[in-house]
Amino acid sequence: MFTGIIEATGHITSLEQHGGDISVTIESHELDYSDVKLGDSIATNGVCLTVVKRLQFGFVADVSKETLDLTCFANYQVGQKVNLEKALMPTSRLGGHLVSGHIDGIATVTQISTNARATEYWLEAPQQLAKYIPYKGSVCIDGISLTVNEVNGCQFKLTIVPHTAQETTIHHFKVGSQVNLEVDQLARYLERLMMPAEPEKSSSNLSLELLAQAGFMNKR
After folding, report:
1. Rg of the Cα trace of the chain?
2. Is the pLDDT assigned to residue 169 strictly greater than 90?
3. For the whole model, what pTM was predicted?
């Protein structure tokens, strides 16, 4: 689990193809690796990746075909800047919201404007995910925990303060940029809980005709 509060930024130094999936090498001189072990999780642009090799100033992780199909990783190149966050510890402050690192889909930046010192970004979500993005709800964009300030159909607005822009990759966003989107987990669980229960299928072979043949019903 993660919080969506970015600890550092880094960049991709290597992408190795392995018959459908890839190994990615991330380098960052800003991230504290003192407590990072093999098998630990590090959210990379919001994608939960498992450390398979520790480097002095980075790590190597495998990216599965499913992850490539659902995220922007399929379009990343060497040199791509990424947001990094180590997994949440029980003693950590939950400064953002609970983030799983399991990307739901890809959103597209449609408009950028300024509002005083802040920058406003309009993004468009896939239609099937838009219902999970409410006004003043939380979303995770490229690993960043953000608040939705306006909603219009499949589009939603984010207001980014200077500190967030400075400490993350969001200042590189342009109109047309595609980003990893994870919706709030509570919205997904709530939808599932509100779904009507499926009626249990009967395994009985009883029928009115069979009962009549056995003499339990009067034949007419």
Report:
1. 24
2. yes
3. 0.85
